[in-house]
Amino acid sequence: MNIERVLANNPGPFTGPGTNTWVLDDGQGRVVIIDPGPVDTRHAKAIVEAIEGREVQSVLVTHTHSDHAPLANPLARDLGVPAVGHAPGPNFEPDIRLLDGARLDVGSLELRVIQTPGHADDHLCFRAGNALFTGDHIMGGSSVMVEDMGSYLTSLEKLRGTGLERLHPGHGDEMGDPDSVIDWYLAHRMQRHEEILAAISSGADTVPDIVAVVYADVHPSLHPLAARSVQAHVTLLSDQGRIALAGDRVVAVPVTDERTHTNP
Ligand SMILES: [Zn+2]
Which of 137, 187, 198, 253 lies in disulfide reach of 116, CB 3.0 to 4.6 Å? Predict the structure, then answer.
């Protein structure tokens, strides 16, 4: 198996150095393309050049965000292969839809589909041997914007202790020692969770207020993105019964709940 990266020309605060398009080869000239990225003629050309006449079997997307999926349909059409993902999205219409546990054969190589909702509802990771293509579930060198915190944490736990050896993220460099990386992500999220609860306890009662406290050391241009993760933490805190919500206002729940007195 060979794995090559083609870096898209879309660097930025949300994409790091740009989107990683991965070309996975079974070692015998059959390949799949993972996360072709945004529609960009130069990047499409770079991908086709990287393939160098090998036989492409499909174009896969980890999720349908605009920095990962929009090139999938046009590129797949040009190459005469199916575009494959979990579900339709704003700029993506899968020819084949994948569910958790699905198997894709890339020539002699077996690719396993692992559903990992959290960063996005429709997020998939792809496993080949002990290598995992993580999309934006796990990124090289940064934490991830999370839409659904409960699902996200479950999706991290799901990968832990499964014998992975390499992570190939949607942004940033590939990583070794996946379980340590996953532990860092879990610990980072738990720390944020407690920081957000502490901010609420000390009077921050809207998402922007919480962001201003918890992300004080992060550049304001990233605050709208942070707000989405904070919202996900707030929803999880509410689901956990640790805070209450009154419309957009967050209300801290006193540590001593009166039910504990009446229902021992
Ligand atoms: Zn991304």
Answer: 137
Calculate ∠ Cα 109-110-116, nearest 5°. 135
pTM of the full predicted structure? 0.92
Cα 137 to ligand 1 centre (Å): 9
- The 3 state secondary structure assigned to 45-56 is HHHHHHHCCCEE
Distance 260 CA to ligand 1 centre (A): 45
Report residue 82 as tokens: 């199916």
What's the gap in Å between 170 CA and the centre of ligand 1? Answer: 6
CB neighbours of residue 220 within 10 Å: 11
Q: What span, in angstroms and rounded, lies between the C-alpha atoms of 82 and 51?
A: 16
Q: Which two tokens stand for residue 49?
A: 């050049």
pLDDT digits (tens, 9 = 90+) for 88-141: 999 999 999 999 999 999 999 999 999 999 999 999 999 999 999 999 999 987
Residue indicated by tokens 């940064």? 142
Closest C-alpha to 21, from 32, 38, 29, 33: 33
